[in-house]
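In practice, a research group might receive sequence data for several interacting partners and want a quick structural hypothesis before committing to experiments. The following worked case mirrors that situation: the sequences arrive first, and a predicted assembly follows.
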Amino acid sequence: MEANRNGFKAKFSPLFLTVSGAVFIISMLLGLSLGSVPIPLKDLAKALLAGPVTDDGETGHIILWTLRFPRVLMAFIEGASLGVAGAAMQGLFRNPMADPYVLGVSSGASLGAVLGIVFGAGRVLGLWSLPVLAFFGAFASTGVVYLLSTKNGRTDTWTLLLSGIAVSSLVSSLIAFLMVFFRQRVEEIVFWTMGGLSRSSWKAVGSALPYAAIGMGVLWAQSKALNAFSFGEEAAFHMGVSVEKVKRRILWASSLTTASCVAFTGPVGFVGLIVPHVVRMIMGPDHRWLIPVSALAGGNTLVLADLLARTMVSPLEIPVGVITSLFGAPFFLYLLVKVRKRGI
Amino acid sequence: MGKSNAAATIWVNGVWFAYDGNQILHDISFEIPRGTFSALLGPNGAGKSTLLKVISGYLEPQRGQVLVCNQQVHSMKDKDRSRLITYVAPEYRSAFEFTVEEAVLMGRIAYSDSVVAQSQRDLKAAEHAMAATKILHLRHRPVTSLSSGEQQRVQIARAICQDPAVLLLDEPTAHLDMSFEIEIMEILTQLVREGRTVLAIFHDVNLALRYASTLFFMKQGRFVESIRPREISPEIIEKVYGAKSRIIADPHADIRYVVPYSIAKP
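A structural hypothesis for the assembly, expressed as tokens:
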């Protein structure tokens, strides 16, 4: 029916579900099977079916269950989180250049986590406390960027990007400070500034997942309001959106979503920029679809990016953040040129 | 889709509004009966847009009361308020490429608590609103590709889709050429016929004289005069706009027009 073209069923057509399901399964299988020690598909199936047995002496089993599986899951959750946080921030700021990394939210989150680590909060309170600390860092950065760049419900692209740069630099210098004061932990701190998944563990996955799920769920629930924001906050108000309440919700939920994984991996750049942008080109800007599809696409993207990071110069490993920036930074520049032409 | 039973009245009493220390509205009081078409007129900077946003609930006055259908707009829940009254700005710019239909359906946000679902009722309301504003053929076009006249109709359709008792419009005919202008006025007239109350700001006094049943004149944040179209006089025009004018009658209809001819000497 013509009138139903925007309905739930039309967008989530069988073809779309099949294709995205297939992409998901293929990227998960690739992520699990390939690495410095490849696990052939038939062994992979056996090891997966055998369950988390790590004492039967088979190297493939041990690698799969203690290292690779949690790592692939972590990559998926983080990619999904960054995709969703990016989509929501772009909606909130009415600007396709917004992204947790570009706006310094990711670095804010990693500062929170680093503080937790050097002062031992992770050890005393448990791993679950790291996302909370990262959340405070992320929230502070988001808040500062928002207050600096948005005036009367309008966001100027240049002010937005400049405040992101300012916040990022401030955070970097604070992290550098910590490196000087905690020399014995420099290596650990450096890891946080690069963004890598090599430290993934089941515990980290378990600690990140609930925060990521809550954050993403809350953001998805704001979909219709985010749509209305496209016409400006005043227009949204007249459509019946509780503007201030929704804004506050998006600010904390996108901070929490970003922080959930960044607390364990450090900032991974540009996933939150590229993924929603590409999804928007395919699916349209409606956040009701944009957000869940960005989650799926972001998860797949980071699983594959991490695969590249692990295997490109195997057995050496490149931090996944380096890979995403390698692809993301040129894309960012392309967007910048495009936005400039449109004169926002 | 009319609201013939609701007592759609705008009642404004002793409203004062200041912004950044500038007093913009001074003691404004008036009321508008249900199912009428009223025009708000006055020179630039008279405070017309501010007054409209005070009535819509967006700006909160420092003093005074605003009742819409006997309810205090400033203390209503956002969703309840926007089912009762909505506002259309002179210009819209969308950050993302929503289709016309998606933009019109945004008028149904206040009717649903669901994250994803759009009811058959929502879809029907959008269909009706697009038909009433003659934009059905544009439904799948991105709003970012439309002319300003088309965008204006999309936003009026969004407002109709919201099914409010009261519509406020800030210069709905700004930047439009003559045929679009008349089309918008016909749409607004039809809304009034359905029992809704329309209050709109116009730049063009003659357009208001032809379509509105009451004209409110403002100057420097104060209410100057409220008249019926046939009561228009050169004195009022001089008082409000500071221009000398003649009033002429349309020989084919019972309508009077203002023809300004010089600036009044102070």
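Before designing any experiment, note the following. Chain B has eight helices and twelve strands. Chain B touches chain A through 40 residues (CB under 8 Å).
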